[in-house]
Amino acid sequence: MTSPAIMIGLSAVVFALREGEARVLTVRPRASSGAPVALEGLPFGPFDPEGHRTFELALREFVARQTRFQLGYVEQLYTFGDKGRDAPLADLGGGAARVISVGYLGLAPAAEAAQERDVVWSDFGRFFPWEDWRAGRPGVIDTVLAPALEAWAGRSRGRGARARALFALDGALWNEERVLERFELLYEAGLAPEAARDRARAAGAAPVEATLREPAFGEPMVSDHRRILATALGRLRGKLRYRPIIFELLDETFTLSALQRAMEAVSGIALHKQNFRRAVERTGLVEGIGRTAPSAPGRPAELFRFRRHAAAARPSLGLSLPRLRD
Amino acid sequence: MTSPAIMIGLSAVVFALREGEARVLTVRPRASSGAPVALEGLPFGPFDPEGHRTFELALREFVARQTRFQLGYVEQLYTFGDKGRDAPLADLGGGAARVISVGYLGLAPAAEAAQERDVVWSDFGRFFPWEDWRAGRPGVIDTVLAPALEAWAGRSRGRGARARALFALDGALWNEERVLERFELLYEAGLAPEAARDRARAAGAAPVEATLREPAFGEPMVSDHRRILATALGRLRGKLRYRPIIFELLDETFTLSALQRAMEAVSGIALHKQNFRRAVERTGLVEGIGRTAPSAPGRPAELFRFRRHAAAARPSLGLSLPRLRD
DNA sequence: TCAAAAGTGTTATCCTTACACCCATGT
DNA sequence: ACATGGGTGTAAGGATAACACTTTTGA
Q: What is the 3-state secondary structure (H, E, C) of chain B?
C-alpha cells in the first residue's frame, strides 16, 4: 500500500485598519456552479515545492494574486496538521490528500487599493464577539457564554476553572491575549458551530449547513480557519507589548490618538489617554513632525512619525497598554 | 510532469538540566557502513500521515523511540521550508523529495533514564560559544567574532549596525533572547561552517568535510539543525519571563539557588541573588515545604515546590531576570 | 575557627496608576 | 460660547536595582 500524499497549504491572516477598526481579509469561496457558499475563509493557497523557494515568498505571491495587493510585515504563526479537522482543498488533485496548513500573519498599511470581488475586509468582532472590551465588558459573555459554559462544565472543577479564568467570570481578570485558548474552549465545549460540523463529518455524515446559530458564539469559518484567526489575533496582541509592530498598520504620519485607537482596536481594550501618551514618549519610538492633522472637530492634533532607526536599535520594545478601567 | 513529493520531518530540540547545566539532546548519526559521521544533529523523524493523528503525538513517539524517554512539556517552534538548506532524509524514499521540517521544543525533567548509544546530552555552549555570559562577557566575542564581523560588514552601515546591536559591540547592550538573529547573522556572513557547506552543495560540489574550523563560531550541525536549535533557545529564553516554564526543567522540590542556577543556565546571564529571590516570592509561584536540602557545603537550604494551581490561575506569569552586572 | 553557601535589611530611583485640569479649534 | 477632542501636572504606590550585612552548617 502506498502512503497517502501530503499537501502543504498556506493560510494568511491579514490584518489592516479600516476606518479605525481592525479588519481581517476574508474570502467568500464560490462553489463550482458559481453560487457563493455560506462560509467565509482565509486566503488560502497550495504550496508548490517546485515553484516556490520559501513559504513566505509563496504566501506573498498568492495573497497578491487573490487580493491584488502586497503584504508588508509577514510572520509565520503555526503549522496545523491534526487529522480530524476539515481540510478544504484535500481533494483538489483527485486523491484523498492529507493537508498540512502553515498559517501566516500579515499586516497591511491602512490605505489599500480596491479589492477583488469575494475578498472582503471583515471586522473580527463578527468571528469573536466576546473579544471587544473597548466599550466595557461585552454583554454576550454574561448573557450567553457564561450559562452555556457553566452547563458544559457541570460539576467538573477543571472545566469550570478554565472557563472562569479565560472568560473573566466571577471576578477573574480579562487577559486579552488568550484568544486561542478561549476559542479552543468553545470548540471543545461544542459551542463553536465548527465543532458540530467536524463531528458530523468524522461520523461520515453529509455536512450540515445552517443549523440554528447563536450569534454570540461568532460566525463560523471554513475548515479550521477560525482557529488560525484566533492564533493570529492572540499573537498580534501579545506582540504589541514587546515589538514596535503597531506601526505596520498605521500610515506614515499619524496622531497620537490614531495610534491609541489602533492599539485599542487590536487589543480590544480601552486605554488611559495620558498614561498611554507618557509611555509612548518614554519609548522614543515616535517623533512629532511639527505639523498638525487636517481639520477635524476639536483642537487639531500634532502629527507624529515612527522612528524606524530607533526601533531597529531596540527591536524588543513595544508599547505598554495602560488600561482605562478594571 | 509530476509534482515532486513533499516529506514532512519533525525535529526535536529537547532541553534538560544535567549537573546544573542546560543540555540539548543530540544524535550522532551513523553512516551505513556503521562508522560515525562527523556532525551531530537533532533527533529527527519523518511524519507519517497515515499512522499519526497529530504532529505532537508523532514527535513524542519518535523521541521516545530514539532516546528511550518520555518528553514532558512540548511546543511547536517553527516550520522550516526553505529550498537551498540541506535536507537530511531527502533521498530516503528513492526520489528527490523536498523536506519540510517542523521544529519542536521539548523540556525534560532533570533526572532521566540512561540514553541509547549515539544519543547524547550536549552543552549548548559547544554550538553557540558566545551565548554564555554567566561568567562575564565571553572572550570569543571580542577576540574572534567582532573582527570577523567587522571585516564582513566593511563600510556597509546596515551590516555594521546589525552586528553591533546583536553582539553587544561598542557599548550596545546584550539581549540574551536574540539567539536566532545572531546565528543567522553569522550564517549570512559566511562565518558559520554550515554556510560554506550549503554553498558548496548548491553549486553541485561534493560536501566538503572538516575544513579548518574556528571553534569560536561554534560546532556546526547536520542540515539546518543549528538554526532550529537557535530558534528553540531564543524562544525558551523569552518565555522564561512570561510563563512559569522553568519548573518543567526542575525536580519536584528544589532550592532557590537551584532555581536561580537553572534560570541562569538557560538565559546565559548571571542574576542578582537577593533581587531574584524577592521577585520569585512576589510571584507566589513557589512555596517552601519546611524541609531542607540534603547536605552540601555551607548552610543547608530550604526546599521549595512549584505551586501548579497558582500558575494555572495566571499562566502569563514568569520570573524576572534581575541582572547582576551590566 | 573558617570557608561556603543561605538568607535578610535598607535605600534611591524609576515606572505605573490615578487623579483633575487647561488649551486650541470649528460651529 | 460651547462642544469636541488635544494635551499637561502632580502625587501615591509599587517594582527594580544597588548597596552591605547576618546566619547556619560541614570540615
A: CCCCCEEEEEEEEEEEEECCEEEEEEECCECCCCCECCCEECCEEECCCCCCCCHHHHHHHHHHHHHCCCCCEEEEEEEECCCCCCCCCCCCCCCCCEEEEEEEEEECCCCCCCCCCCEEEEEHHHCCHHHCCCCCCCHHHHHHHHHHHHHHHCCCHHHHHHHHHHHCCCCCCCCCCCHHHHHHHHHHCCCCHHHHHHHHHHCCCCCCCCCCCCHHHCCCECCCHHHHHHHHHHHHHHHHCCCCCHHHHCCCEEEHHHHHHHHHHHHCCCECHHHHHHHHHHHCCEEEEEEECCCCCCCCCEEEEECHHHHHHCCCCCCCCCECCC
Identify the residue whose cell numbers are 562508522.
B35
Which residues 263-282 in chain A have a CB closer than 7 A to strand C?
Answer: 272, 274-275, 278-279, 282
pLDDT of residue A145: 97
**Cα dihedral value A183, A186, A190, A193, nearest 10:** -50
Question: How close, in Å, is residue A98 to chain B by CA atoms?
Answer: 7
- Sort residue B194 into left (φ over 0), alpha (ψ -120 to 50) or beta: alpha
Between CA A166 and CA A152 the distance in angstroms is 15
Q: How far is the CA of B138 from the C1' of C4 (A)?
A: 26
- Measured distance CA(A109)–CA(A16) in Å, rounded: 6
Q: Does any CB of chain A come closer than 8 Å to the CB of residue B312?
A: yes
Could you read off the pLDDT of A258-278 as tens digits, one per residue? 999 999 999 999 999 999 999
- Separation between the CA of A251 and the C1’ of C22 (whole angstroms): 30
Average pLDDT over residues B30-59: 81
Name the β-bridge partners of B24.
B15, B122
For A258, the enclosing helix (H) or strand (E) is: helix A256-267
| Domains of chain A, CATH where assigned | 6-124 (3.90.79.10), 128-220 (no CATH), 243-313 (1.10.10.10)
Q: What is the pTM of this model?
A: 0.90
